[in-house]
Amino acid sequence: MWERENEYYSGILMNPFHFSTRRLVSQIYCGLKPASSKKQRICFEMARPSSNMVDFREVFAKAKHIAIITGAGVSAESGVPTFRGAGGYWRKWQAQELATPEAFARNPSRVWEFYHYRRELMMSKHPNPAHISIAECETRLSKQGRSVVVITQNIDELHRKAGTKHLLEIHGSLFKTRCTSCGNVTENYKSPICPALAGKGAPGPEAKDAGIPVEDLPRCEDCSGLLRPHVVWFGETLDSDILTAVEKELEICDLCLVVGTSSLVYPAAMFAPQVSARGVPVAEFNMQSTPATDKFSFHFAGPCGTTLPPALARHETEIIS
Ligand SMILES: [Zn+2]
């Protein structure tokens, strides 16, 4: 079963045999050619993904089922912090230290303050052109009998805010809670989520107080059990129903976009290679390619808020009634 911690081992997720075979073939091919630096260069360029937007648009125009896998890069352009990497701290912790079942068991007040802060922060954030172009594309294509599904690791609901309907949130949502007693999952957009969290959760130095008593943290309306954020924490498995839904979408898609994350990094690394192995084109939209993205058909470098809107705009062959 896939666990959240697998993102640390993303390199392993790629099929090394496929890669090395392709690279080997490419090198042998180049090696057999008469020594000509120009020919060699062309040979290597052919091994790389295309960044030709006209070619991509032709593929896009024919696609009936488009799967769009999105990662943190899409939200970063809306100013949503990940609390990971250099400088990514809330108080003295990074997300990996707070987004765990162990941290919640040890100090539910601190973890709730962290999530309360993130929920409140999201109230001031808006979808960017990448989110909006995806949502508009779904609406437009649905009138043509074509489908778009968004598979995201983001928990901020910016895709939903932008108007995306067909959405698979593999890591859950900041705006859902789950009861630790009865398991009930509910949407929750309250601000603050409970009176005791009002004015709490500020980043910076650790608060000096003893924290919020557990009985004053968010509680279940049905059984009064302690609620937790309905998000997949590090070390937890992904929801099997959502994974099944993702698998179905990946089996029927005839074009796959990887946006704001690398195809080599979780979660796209879980999904994109299997799509690619079926011969379905995969297009990456992110800041930089990696040496191994030659497995995929297209790569468009740059902020996806800039690269995605022209890619998903109405194609001249689209007939809109
Ligand atoms: Zn309950």
UniProtKB/TrEMBL annotation:
Gene3D superfamilies assigned to the protein according to its UniProt record, in alphabetical order: SIR2/SIRT2 'Small Domain, TPP-binding domain
State a single Gene Ontology molecular function.
histone deacetylase activity, NAD-dependent
Q: How is the cofactor bound?
A: Binds 1 zinc ion per subunit.
Query: So what EC number does this one have?
Result: 2.3.1.-
Amino-acid positions noted as binding NAD(+) in the UniProt annotation, renumbered to this chain: 71-90, 153-156, 260-262, 286-288, 304
- For whether the record's keyword set contains Phosphoprotein, the answer is no
Active site: residue positions? 171
One Pfam family per UniProt: SIR2
Keywords for this protein: Cytoplasm, Metal-binding, Mitochondrion, NAD, Nucleus, Transferase, Transit peptide, Zinc
Q: What class of enzyme is it?
A: transferase
> What is the recorded function of this protein according to its Swiss-Prot or TrEMBL entry?
NAD-dependent lysine demalonylase, desuccinylase and deglutarylase that specifically removes malonyl, succinyl and glutaryl groups on target proteins. Has weak NAD-dependent protein deacetylase activity; however this activity may not be physiologically relevant in vivo.
The entry assigns this protein to a family as follows: Belongs to the sirtuin family. Class III subfamily.
State the name under which the record lists this protein. NAD-dependent protein deacylase sirtuin-5, mitochondrial
Q: Which organism is it from?
A: Eublepharis macularius (Leopard gecko)
Q: State which gene encodes it.
A: SIRT5
